[in-house]
Design brief:
- This protein is α/β, with parallel strands linked by helices.
- The protein has a single domain, classed as Rossmann fold (3-Layer(aba) Sandwich).
- Helices cover 33% and strands 23% of the residues.
- The strands form two sheets. The protein has a nine-stranded mixed β-sheet, with helices on both faces. The chain has a two-stranded antiparallel ribbon with strand order 5-8.
């Protein structure tokens, strides 16, 4: 069977730098990545799963927040990713959200964000590095715990915003030591996990590789199931 195709959303401005690293992680997990930016022909029918990547802040217009003068926004990308999240769930295709992508997963399902998360969570360690210096605590019994284990995990951190009120059908999968939400997940299929950190930079870590393997495995299973349905349909015509 051909490798599952994974659509990866990136910033039009800076995505050229990060996409090769995400694509490398997807390839190691058994998939093939396709880059999507605002304005590209991003069709859910062409892929078996989706990664909503990191980047600029999400416009607070989408969740009732306040415009911050220093925020760097990309409304075209916001619209693209919001559509893709809904289409992925309608077609039962798995989703992995990375940093901004985790926040978009939440916002697309009706949730809200802390625009200055570290002002709210004063006890959270504030690291801004691609190195694994931040500790997150994984909630037992979650899908994330099954994928990566439930021991405390060292991750990196580049974000200033974080999930506030959860969107429909989501639950908390991890927090940091200060209580800030660091991962969310859908409570039912299709597979959907959003992590606040950047696992693509931690490709050498087995537990981070597990996130990409879980996505690609779910995409492959969906692809195989859909192929079987098409064979049955063809045979009954």
């Amino acid at each position: 069977m051909a490798r599952p195709r994974i659509g990866v959303t990136t910033s039009r401005r800076s995505g050229w730098r990060i996409f090769p690293l995400v694509a490398f992680n997807v390839w190691m997990a058994g998939g093939c990545a396709v880059r999507w930016v605002d304005g590209s022909d991003a069709r859910m029918a062409d892929v078996d799963g989706v990664i909503i990547g990191g980047g600029d802040d999400i416009s607070p217009d989408l969740y009732g927040g306040q415009i911050v003068a220093s925020a760097r926004l990309d409304p075209g990308r916001d619209a693209l990713e919001r559509r893709l999240v809904h289409e992925a769930f309608e077609l039962s295709k798995p989703v992995l959200g990375i940093c901004r992508g985790s926040q978009m997963l939440n916002v697309a399902l009706g949730g809200t964000l802390h625009q200055d998360a570290y002002d709210t969570y004063r006890d959270s360690d504030r690291h801004r590095t691609i190195l694994p210096r931040k500790t997150v605590l994984i909630e037992p019994g979650t899908r994330l715990a099954r994928v990566a284990g439930d021991d405390p995990m060292k991750v990196n951190a580049l974000h200033s915003q974080a999930v506030d009120e959860l969107g429909r059908g989501l639950r908390v999968a991890a927090r940091d030591r200060g209580g800030m939400i660091q991962a969310i997940e859908r409570v039912r299929d299709p597979f959907a996990i959003g992590v606040q950190w950047h696992p693509e930079h931690l490709f050498y870590a087995r537990r981070q590789q597990g996130l990409f393997r879980a996505l690609v495995t779910a995409a492959a299973a969906r692809k195989a199931h859909h192929g079987q349905l098409e064979e049955v349909d063809a045979a009954t015509r």
